[in-house]
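Why does residue order matter? Because the sequence determines the fold. Keep that principle in mind as you read this record.
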Amino acid sequence: MAATCKNMKSQQKQLLLLFFFVGLSSILFAQNKPDDIVGYYLNEDPFSGAISQIYIYNAGNEIYEGIVIWVNEEKRKIYEGLVFLKEMTFNSKENEWQNAALIYPGKNGKFKAYMRLEKDGRLRVRGYWGVSLFGKTLYWPKERESRNPKIKHP
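Structure:
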């Protein structure tokens, strides 16, 4: 009887340890959900230094888009309301949003991009032309609300 009791206690300890490690690994290797990217982000233009606020939203059919909500320079206010980010989808295996087409005002053609949420809440954006090697990585901090309530977005 005493041996059976020891075996049960040992099995309980093993089970508790298993639950602990499963819980810990799910925290450490957390998987994003597709809509986790939805929200407002602050962007510094890598070419001009202008500051803008971007809103990324679910456009339907698992496609994500981004619109310029606010720009800090008066001469660039014409870009407010521009949907500059299109066709982005979430890849659960890579845990990132991919295949984005970026339209950059004043530049010919489209850039490509992929994005990943960092642990600190910033959005890591890798924009490139042709091959990912020839590009630039930006970090967009997330913001709580719109800087321009005049711009309506989905």
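The CA atoms of residues 2 and 8 lie 10 Å apart.
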